[in-house]
Amino acid sequence: MRMNKYYKSYLHERRITIKKDARRLLHRKIQQINNQLIDKKILEYDTTSDTTIDTFKPAVYGSEIIKLNRIATAQDFQRLLNNSMVTKADWSRLVANNTARDVADKITAKEIQRIESNLKAVENVMNDASVNISQYKTLIEKLPPTTSRQEILNRTLERGHNLRGREYTQRELERLSRDLERYKSNRLDYETKRMENQQAYREGLDRIHQTKTWNWSELENTRHSQMDGQTVDFASKFEVVNEVTGDTDYLLFAGDIDNEHNNCSNTCNCQCWTSYENEEVTVENQSYSLSEVAYSSTAQGWQ
Q: Is the dihedral angle over the CA atoms 158, 159, 165, 170 positive or is it negative?
């Protein structure tokens, strides 16, 4: 049983990795937006104009990020729904579109928050230290566009100065991208199950997914070992306690960044996962499991 659970955990994490790799181009584009803003902040530091000020407004650069995220999230959600029991209907299209938009908006908000933090750190550096602008410009022209700007800044600070302020390192950016990809995958899994429950209700059946269970990653030095095996009603939230800090959050699923405390104590780099128990349903006096139940229009796929 333990090996079986370990294997399921491995498959879950492997799926996250595959999805993240598939979205590598998306993450690279967002990283380039981050770097372009930092470059502009540094190279035009002594130049002030309305155009320059507008460039750094989240509403301006965020519009491109949210466009990228909405397209990617809608595509990912449709792939899940194509393999679900949700039928093609006006209600399902509306719910799917609204859900994909909501997920994309939350991911974008986190990425904008990261970029704002980076820009503030760069501003602190420019206020407190001297940067060799000519050398900086030479390096960004030679190096790949996704190269960490923290590394370049450290190399171009005049002697006697240290990097002040706080910019995310390349490793942290990679981890954040992974966390957001994990949130998107887990959230879309949950929403697909929720729509299947709605579909069952419309068909006059009981909920297919009655409960859900928290599964600990079984990795060393983690914070949720005591959560392992905890089961709650499908619509309820898990009471998640960080075993190291004591922080408590109420999450719909593992990695749920959309929580009332809006911190990362129980979500950042969390590799736990949520499983959904499928109840047997009765159709024409016969019992079927989830994999055997099919609705009339499911075979046509979801669009």
A: positive
The domain limits of the chain are: 2-206, 209-278
CB atoms near residue 173 (< 10 Å): 21
Q: Angle, nearest 10°, between helix axes 24-43 and 170-202?
A: 130
Instruction: Report the largest interatomic distance among the alpha carbons of the chain, rounded to a whole angstrom.
Output: 81
pLDDT (tens digit per residue) in 224-265: 999 999 999 999 999 999 999 999 999 999 999 988 776 788
Q: How much of the chain is in helix, strand and coil states, percent to nearest 5?
A: 55, 10, 35
Residues 208, 278: contact at Cβ < 8 Å? yes
What confidence tens digit (pLDDT) does each residue in 79-106 have?
Answer: 888 888 898 889 999 999 999 999 999 9
Determine the length of the chain: 303
CA distance 302 to 27: 27
Bridge partners of 276?
Answer: 212
Cα 303 from Cα 29, distance rounded (Å) = 27
For residue 125, how many other CB atoms are within 10 A of its CB?
A: 24
Three-state DSSP class for 56? Answer: coil
Handedness of CA 222, 226, 229, 231 (dihedral sign): negative
**Torsion, Cα of 72, 171, 248, 180 (10° steps):** 0
**CA nearest to 253, candidates 19, 263, 105, 270:** 270
- How many CB atoms sit inside 10 A of residue 198's CB? 15
Q: How many other C-beta atoms can be found within 10 angstroms of the C-beta atom of residue 288?
A: 13
Q: Which residue has the tokens 């887990």?
A: 186
Lowest mean pLDDT among 23-27, 49-53, 182-186: 49-53
DSSP letter assigned to residue 77: H
Specify burial of residue 249 (Cβ count, 10 A radius: 0-12, 13-18, 19+).
buried
pTM: 0.76
> 83: exposed, middle or buried (C-beta count within 10 Å: 0-12, 13-18, 19+)?
exposed
